Automatic annotation (TrEMBL):
One of its GO terms (cellular component) is endoplasmic reticulum. InterPro entries: Acyltransf_C, Plipid/glycerol_acylTrfase. The chain crosses the membrane at residues 12-39, 311-330, 336-356. It holds the Pfam family Acyltransf_C. Keywords: Acyltransferase, Lipid biosynthesis, Lipid metabolism, Membrane, Phospholipid biosynthesis, Phospholipid metabolism, Transferase, Transmembrane, Transmembrane helix. It comes from Albula glossodonta. One of its GO terms (molecular function) is 1-acylglycerol-3-phosphate O-acyltransferase activity. SUPFAM superfamilies: Glycerol-3-phosphate (1)-acyltransferase (SSF69593). This is Phospholipid/glycerol acyltransferase domain-containing protein. The keyword Chloroplast does not apply. Belongs to the 1-acyl-sn-glycerol-3-phosphate acyltransferase family. GO terms for biological process: phospholipid biosynthetic process. Residues 90-212 form the Phospholipid/glycerol acyltransferase domain.
Amino acid sequence: MALLAYLKTLFILQLLISFVFVVSGLIINFIQLCTCVLWPFNKQLYRRINCRLSYSLWSQLVMLLEWWSCTDCTLYTNQATVDKFGKEHAIIILNHNYEIDFLCGWTMCERYGVLGSSKVLAKHELLKVPLIGWTWYFLEIVFCKRKWEVDRETVFRGLERLRDYPEYMWFLLYCEGTRFTEKKHQISMQVAESKGLPKLKHHLLPRTKGFTTTLACLKGTVTAVYDVTLNFKDKKNPTLLGIISAQKYRADMHVRRFPVEEIPEEESECANWLHKLYQEKDALQEHYEKEGGFPGPTIIPPRRPWTLLNFLFWATLLLSPLINFAWGIIISGSPLLIIGFILFIIIASVAVRRLIGVTEVKKTGSSYGDQASKKQD
C-alpha cells in the first residue's frame, strides 16, 4: 500500500492520466460532432448516444475522486429520499464553496446512474474551454452570461428544449452564482442588508432568477428539488490538484427532497422560498462547524466499478501507442527528436495545468455589487 501511495504522487503518472483524459476527450468530442447528423432525424437517439459519450469522459474525473484519491462520500438523508435517486427528473441546489464541489455532485450522479445526463446552468465563458465546454455543448447544457437582459431568451429556449429529455436528469444550480470567498461574502451581505434580508454566515445571497426560471420552464418534467449542503471533515479545503495528487478527503453531503408541488409557483413567493432555504442551509453549516457533522441518519452509497473500467479502457487504448512512440524516440538517439518530445511534455503539462485552473476558486470572478448583478433578481 505504501508503494501504491508513492506511485500516485509521481508526476509522470499524473501526466499520463491527464493525457488519457485530454486525448479521449478530443476523440469523444469528434464522435459527438459526428452524431449531429442524427438530430434532424432522431433527436432522442442523438441524446441517448451523447449521454453515454459524456459519461465516458466525466466518469474519468469521478474515477480520480473515487479510486485514485479514494475520497469518501457520505450522505446525510433518509432512505425514502435515496429511493427516489435516479428515478425522477430533479433540480439540484448545491452550495458553491469548494473547487471540487461539482466533482462530489458528479460522484452522486454516477452512483445513481444519471452522470451522463446531468445538466447545469453554466457561465458562457466555459463554452470556450476545450473538452469541458465542447462536451457540454453537445449535451445541450444551458449557458448564460449572468446578465438577465442578455440571457432571457437563451435560457428560456434552452430550458424548454429539455422538457422532453429521454434520460432521467439532475439539473444542477449554483444559486449563489459564483464560488464563496470572503471578499464576495462581504459584498453579498451588503446587498442582503440593502434588501432587508437576513445575513448569511456560510453562503452568498442566492440569485433567485435562475432558480425561479428553471423551475417554471421545467414544470411538468421535474418532480422534485434536492437541496444539497456539502462540507468536508477536519475543515479541509480540497482542490482538484489535491485529488490528482491522490490526497484523500472525506465529504459529507446533507440532502433534502422537496416535491415541486410544495414550492410556490408565483415568482416572488418562489424567490422567498429560496431565500428561506439558504437560511436553513446556513444553519446546517453552522451545525457542522460546531458538531463536525450534519444532523440525521447517514447512508454511504457504494462505488461502482464502471468509472474504473472506463478509464482502464481508454488507458489501454491510448497509452500503448504513446509508450511505443516515446521508446522509439529514445532509442533513435536523435537529439532533435528527444528535445522535441521533451518540449511536447512541457507544453502538455502547462496545458493541463491551465485546464485545472478553470476549477480554482481564485480564478473565478464575481459581479456581486455591480448594477448588472442587482438587476438580475
